[in-house]
Amino acid sequence: MKKGLLAALGALVIFLAGTGTGACMEKKIWFGGGCFWGVQEYFSRVPGVLATKTGYANSTVPHPDYKTVCSGDTGAVEAVEVVYDSEKVTLDYLVDCLFSIIDPFSVNRQGNDVGTQYRTGIYYDSEEEAAQLKQLLALMQGLAGEPLAVELAPLRNFYPAEDYHQDYLKKNPGGYCHIDLNRKPPLPVAPDARAWAKPADEALREKLTPMQYAVTQGGVTEPAFTGEHWNRHEPGIYVDVVTGEPLFASSAKFDSGTGWASFTRPIGKGHVTGRLDESHGMRRIEARSAQGDSHLGHIFPDGPAGLRYCINDAALRFIPLKDMEKEGYGYLLEERR
């Protein structure tokens, strides 16, 4: 369960992680994720990342070297400085990438590497980033149900590592790496994805069935085992019945036994958002579509891969694989199964 949950947390997108256009807006963030060789190589492959550098963050000793850091006497963490274009990739998305390669519950250890220098962490240099990151990690913590061992702290200092540590795995392709570099980064929003406009209320009432309207606009939960998708198995994608925004792929669908369509993750990035729901005397995370703000269902931490997106069938329209291209979803064909 724990191993599956950490993977699901890495795929969770609560904040919109879109793809921008325009002038380059260069920003920096620093990540600790175990041995910095693999972390650097992984982030160097993420679209929108401009440069990476290995080093030692938040050391109590000025200009430490590798041997001193490994002694554990400096308080430093092996970290990677990530320089990115914020017009092409968001901070939330980069954190999403980090969670896809770490065990966020492991204290002072990643893979075979043990010690305080191998702890996981996110280090920022602005109060704006601090507020954003605190909110993101708090929501992840709520879904996890147990303490995350991910340090969040301001960057006090960053000393570049020795030259042989820079781009180590590019220079030594067969070198040690504690993460699977064949794992693709999470899928961002397609740059050519069109805007998914929400129709006016009068048009919605004409377009939707009474149940579809009650679910998406009123937050009603449809009766279990009554929808048209919970037992559907054919390949394709599921879109917001209100706007057509793509939400889930059949590859992430599973039979939860609940009588509602259930998925392990959304499709792409930024299409499904989450918010705290304390209605009916319960504390849950509500799932909503990003563009249409449709009520979809709820997110629970008990799925086969960690999270379970429990979605009302009435909130979804299914598009079969054979129809995806002609309906404008061809860019998602790799995600359809």
Could you explain the architecture of this structure?
This protein has about 325 residues and is of the alpha+beta class. About 20% of the residues lie in helices and about 25% in strands. The protein is built from 8 helices and 17 strands. The protein has helices at about 1-10, 35-45, 65-70, 90-100, 125-145, 170, 200-205, 210-220; strands at about 25-35, 50-55, 75-85, 110, 115, 120-125, 150-155, 160, 235-240, 245-250, 255, 260-265, 270-275, 285-290, 295-305, 305-310, 315-320. The protein has a 6-stranded mixed β-sheet, covered by helices on one side. It has a 6-stranded antiparallel β-sheet with strand order 11-12-16-15-14-13. Strand 15 (about 295-305) and strand 16 (about 305-310) form a beta hairpin. Helix 1 packs antiparallel against helix 4.
Helix content: 10-25%
Shape: elongated
Which percent band covers the strand fraction?
25-35%
Distance between the termini: 24 Å
Structural class: alpha+beta
Average pLDDT, rounded to a whole number, is 87
Poorly predicted regions are 1-8, 10-22, 189-194
Give the number of DSSP strands. Answer: 17
Widest beta sheet: strand line-up: 7-6-1-3-2-8
Q: How many H/I helical runs? A: 8
Helix/strand order, N-terminal first: HEHEHEHEEEHEEHHHEEEEEEEEE
Calculate Rg over CA atoms.
Answer: 21 Å
Sheet of most strands? 6 strands, mixed
